[in-house]
Amino acid sequence: MVFNIIKRSLRILSSPKKEFEDLNKRTFESVVGDYTTLLVTVAILAGLLSLIYSVARAVYFDMFLDISIQYVRMINYSIGRSTSLLFFYLFAGTFLLFFLSMVLRPFLKRMKYTSLLKILFYSLTPLLLFSWFLFNPLPLGIWSLFLLITGIKTYKIEHIKKNSIKKRD
């Protein structure tokens, strides 16, 4: 299941215009499910990689630089740091995304809120896929901004009757 979501995410990155055009065919629930699964997977992966990196670095320092390390305290600190990183990913992926959508909402009044959220979920794909590499996230943010602009330009606003079951706003 996760591999199918990653394949779809890579298709979003390789041909964003086509994927944003096909976004109308997907339900809001399926997009949210894919985003949530990818967010939780990346949060766990980032936490684990941070823990492995910290332990490997401490072992390297202990072996090659002759530094005395208290491993129990170091692992306790590393687990706490990794856990906080995991929860930061979950916080940023939910609450900060919600605040971003509230900021963008007044500028995109013609678009339904659920459509805006679907575009935001798709446009955050570079940050989700590559931010667990511990480096500067600014290029990924620019890439996400480019995908957001592409998504807003290519997304087709469908007109739904006022009394239809598909009317959710």
Report on the architecture of this protein.
There is one protein chain. Helix 3 runs antiparallel to helix 4 (71-104), helix 3 packs parallel to helix 5 and helix 5 packs across helix 7. This protein has 7 helices and no strands. The protein has helices spanning 2-14, 16-21, 28-64, 71-104, 113-123, 125-130, 138-154. The model has no long low-confidence stretch (mean pLDDT 88). It has 169 residues and is mostly helical. The radius of gyration is 20 Å and the shape is elongated.
Topology:
Blueprint: H1 2-14, H2 16-21, H3 28-64, H4 71-104, H5 113-123, H6 125-130, H7 138-154
Helix pairs in contact: 3-4, 3-5, 5-7
The helicity comes to: over 70%
Order of helices and strands: HHHHHHH
Low-confidence stretches: none
User: Over the alpha carbons, how many angstroms does the gyration radius reach?
Assistant: 20 Å
Mean pLDDT: 88
Strand tally is 0
- Total of helices: 7
Main sheet makeup: none
**What percentage of the residues does DSSP assign to strands (E)?**
under 5%
Query: Which class of secondary structure composition applies to the elements?
Result: mainly alpha
Distance between the termini: 30 Å
Shape: elongated
